[in-house]
Amino acid sequence: MTHPLGYVETQRAVLFAEGDPLRLRSGAELHDVEVAYETYGELSPTGDNAIFVCHALTGDAHAAGLRMGEKRRGWWDNMIGRGKPIDTDRFFVISANLLGGCSGTTGPQSNDPATGRAYGPDFPLLHMSDVVAVHRRLVASLGVQRLYAAVGGSLGGMQVLQWVCDAPEQIERAVVIAASSQLSTENIAFSTVARQAIMGDPDYREGRYREHGVRPDQGMKVARMMAHITYVSPEALATKFGRRRTTVGEQMEMAPDFEVEHYLQHQGDAFLGRFDALSYLALSRLLDYFDPFADAATAEALARTSTRFQVTSFDSDWRFSTAQSQRMVEQLRAHGVAVDFAELSSPHGHDSFLLESPGYHDRVRSFVG
Amino acid sequence: MTHPLGYVETQRAVLFAEGDPLRLRSGAELHDVEVAYETYGELSPTGDNAIFVCHALTGDAHAAGLRMGEKRRGWWDNMIGRGKPIDTDRFFVISANLLGGCSGTTGPQSNDPATGRAYGPDFPLLHMSDVVAVHRRLVASLGVQRLYAAVGGSLGGMQVLQWVCDAPEQIERAVVIAASSQLSTENIAFSTVARQAIMGDPDYREGRYREHGVRPDQGMKVARMMAHITYVSPEALATKFGRRRTTVGEQMEMAPDFEVEHYLQHQGDAFLGRFDALSYLALSRLLDYFDPFADAATAEALARTSTRFQVTSFDSDWRFSTAQSQRMVEQLRAHGVAVDFAELSSPHGHDSFLLESPGYHDRVRSFVG
């Protein structure tokens, strides 16, 4: 059986040649930036039907469909495809791995063309605008001047917001889901514990673990297990696992026994090897500093934008709560931007943006419509 | 200036002689169990004015006053003392370190009299009833048959509840603050991440770190930093630290920069050396399994008790939430137990039980009164 999208393929672009480098907000420069991306559907002759999909912290370019030889569909396959809310029969969908990542786009483990060796811990710190700059260049290289829509959840939604702040003329519709315009103190607190777990792992070796043939797996596992708790709601954990355990009665053991412990162990182990520690650090730090409304240029940009926003939060999301979405909405409206906001009900916490909660897909469909 | 309590002193009892061992709920036995305790005030001639104070996970026997040569008052000095809610002019207050701890009472780093070496990871897993059994014996050794009150917050509150279930005739008033009768799935999830951080630390050495002259400091630091987030409310973190940082404008760094990061680093570092990893594991595991209402004996015990309960929760406590206290109250009332319950308003999260929130001390005072 053929998948409605046909098999999809991850492609590769090299942007920002040596004489035309990517100038980061920090002042550092990168050239020969690779970008891994996928496209679904066909670009219209006038180029007016392109939708850019922005992934979350540990996502990648493979948002939809099936790649040859693989069994697992893209991470947003329920949202993107023929007849789906982001309908590939109508739209030309672009999904790209982000700068600093580890799934095909230039990041800390990529080779620095200047040295021929991996950047490692010398990879520059990134601003969300740098991520946007790479994707803007990619979009231009694909012949798209203006996006029909940019869509993203979590970090992806924050990228969408930054994109509008940086190039308001380029996005007609901005769909921001389960995101924030500024991390809360508690968000930063969890981030810093994750970084302590990773950077304090003796196998981190000051970020040069790959040169030493090791990996800070223990730190990454702890970081992922902890992060996972923040991705789901306490109610969802209780419903799914309760206090079920393997031992009975008054038996006890120190090793994992309750089902939720086995589940988190599995989440932690499955992360290892799939994601690079330096990318995790780079992207978590980028999120901590993300604060587009603190930037004087934002007010000016938003004053002249005609971009329409749809902002959506989920009531059980305690990582990027409804209050955080509401603040973003107020900030946008204060700059005269049109925003359609709703809090949806879903028991699944932050992860809701990847699932099909009642009303969620219809809401995206009608706005993108 | 002399402290109203005078200098206090930590004392030491040895209980459960070899021929009369402590039989744990697991079937294991311990003998020559040491207990570190302090007392404040005077026992009345009839022995009817004793109040037992139960400490939380990382607490100790030093609840009030000043020990000679030290600058830091006991952890509940605002609650216990002359004229304070637990008034040492009227009551004989006993505070003891708990079994499995590392502050003077027998725990994993104590010498096993059978081998002359520390128990280490061979220390038996503990049930909350085992903790209670040691303190019951201590109380008896001090000439107290029946407690005027038992008072505790967090794990201490859970110990109070267990004590009533195990020896309902022994406690006249039970004061349970910021506690739970059963950990939630999310509570267990955070516990298991902490254990992964500690037991996965290469310096854990399967629990024999002391023999190797090392300590799993990295794991303990991560565990403590994460736990600390759950002890405070997101609102308190935001009020206290906001997004203040050392760098300015678009400067960024990977090392701790935001004030909340420095704060958590400090919390983590201050914990090292102060608390033993095996004790932390033992007590966190004891909490996971704590479930007194699943015990058939509890119904029988509560049916014949005349103990009156005061249960208090704080609205911003998300570690042991009001919903958890309410469930405990319903369970107690279903067994015919008299309970005075209130949720108090405090912005400080779980830590509120250690602070002086409006109405809190008066509430305890009037119940103990």
From TrEMBL, chains A, B:
The record marks R319 as: Important for acyl-CoA specificity. Transfers a succinyl group from succinyl-CoA to L-homoserine, forming succinyl-L-homoserine. It holds the Pfam family Abhydrolase_1. It comes from the Bacteria. It comes from Nocardioides dubius. The lineage of its organism: Bacteria, Bacillati, Actinomycetota, Actinomycetes, Propionibacteriales. Its main location: cytoplasm. This is Homoserine O-succinyltransferase. Keywords: Acyltransferase, Amino-acid biosynthesis, Cytoplasm, Methionine biosynthesis, Transferase. Residues 50-332 form the AB hydrolase-1 domain. InterPro entries: AB_hydrolase_1, AB_hydrolase_fold, HAT_MetX-like.
